[in-house]
Amino acid sequence: MLQRPRGTRDFLPEEMEARRTLEGTFRDRARRWGYREIATPEFEHLELFTLRSGEGIVEEMYTFEDKGGRKLALRPEITASVLRMYVNEARVIPKPLRWFYFADCFRYERPQKGRYRQFWQFGAELIGADGPRADAEVILLAHDLLAAAGARFEIRVGHLAPVTSLLRDLDPADRKRVMVFLDKHDATGLGAFLAEKGLVDLPDRLQALRGIRDLSELWEIIGDIPEKARIQEMIGLLDAEGIRYSLDFGIARGLDYYTGMVFEGFGENLGAENQILGGGAYRLAHLFGGDDVASVGFAIGFDRVMVSLGERPAAQGLRVAVLATEDGRARAFTVARAFRDAGVTAVLDLSERSISAQLSHAAKSAEFAVILGKREAEAGTVTLKDLRTGEQREVPLPDAVKEVKRSDAR
Predict the structure, then answer these.
(1) Domain holding 363: CATH number?
(2) The whole model's pTM is what?
(3) Are residues 257 and 362 in the same domain?
(4) What integer pLDDT is reported at residue 211 of this predicted model?
(5) What are the DSSP calls for 202-269, one per residue?
(6) Domain presence at residue 314
(7) Peptide bond between residue 96 and the one before it cis (omega within 30 degrees of 0)
(8) Which of 19, 162, 228, 388 is the most exposed place for a label (fewest CB within 10 A)?
(9) How many helical (H) and strand (E) elements, i.e. helices and strands, does the chain have?
(10) What are the tens digits of pLDDT across the range 57-103?
(11) Which of 290, 351, 301, 284 is nearest to 321 (CA)?
């Protein structure tokens, strides 16, 4: 028996319904903020991703050559594709652009709970807006999405300026090494590396950034920096909205293109692999031949959010089972269509079992049964049975539809 590829999953109807419900919640909330949905190809030229993240990312990707010898890759994330699309298709559209996406990505890594080789991301990009209000909007949007989903989460907000101000005397290659240590929370490696550089007091100052609880502590550590006013205004906007978040100026993100604000989200019931969101302010379009446009965005790990929500069934409307004897079968499709046209799920019993056997089966998955026998066929009526109470009565078809609709509204 053939098995599915490692790191992929099959989704049965119940899980798909729950996933579509969450997906719909995210889409609805994003649209309320004025964000519009986009889509990009599942595979891109390999160079798109190596330009952004370096050749090292190739080991984590699914890459291949097409019949023309072109090097392609299944997308490992979406942001690069979005900015490539902006450069190709949307540079002349008035900015700012508010876009969101929901798509699957592929990475060749060790599968574990909440981490798969095929996984889904829901993300948003605000392109062509710069400043504290743009930073705050994207953080608040991400918070709104997770809150609307019913997730239990923590958001941590930071900015790269404090770290980079402490690292200003290091050359670019060494700064990059330090950012990797910070991103991996490797205090031992960080201390050893900076000790080699003769900067023995710097690890403590960098680590102190993680423990800051208010901005006054930050200025005591780093003094005044050019970004001070922007950081203060952004935090003031978040506080004015009353959302729950914490400061973390030790967030490094480990990606070269972030330029300012950075933030992360963590599920409260996911154990060690608990990050469900990451984002920040960045400049990426110029790598792909575009203008040096300011952007802010984030991606939500959709699968990890699903895990954090647990076994939560999707909300469903009422279901009607249409049952018929041999005399009533000719009318069954017409009756079912009347319910469907009214927005009610109607399922025909396609067996030739007795009505009692059909009722027994229907009681497992439906709230109402509509019975069509010889009497109903001759009278042009239906028998509507409430499978929850056992009550039934013979009524005209339009009345049966109205009664089910009223019950669904309650």
Answers:
(1) 3.40.50.800
(2) 0.89
(3) no
(4) 85
(5) HHHHHHHGGG--SHHHHHHHH---TTHHHHHHHHHHHHHHT---EE-TT--TT-TTEEEEEEEEEETT
(6) no
(7) yes
(8) 388
(9) 15, 16
(10) 899 999 999 999 999 999 999 999 999 999 999 999 999 999 999 99
(11) 351
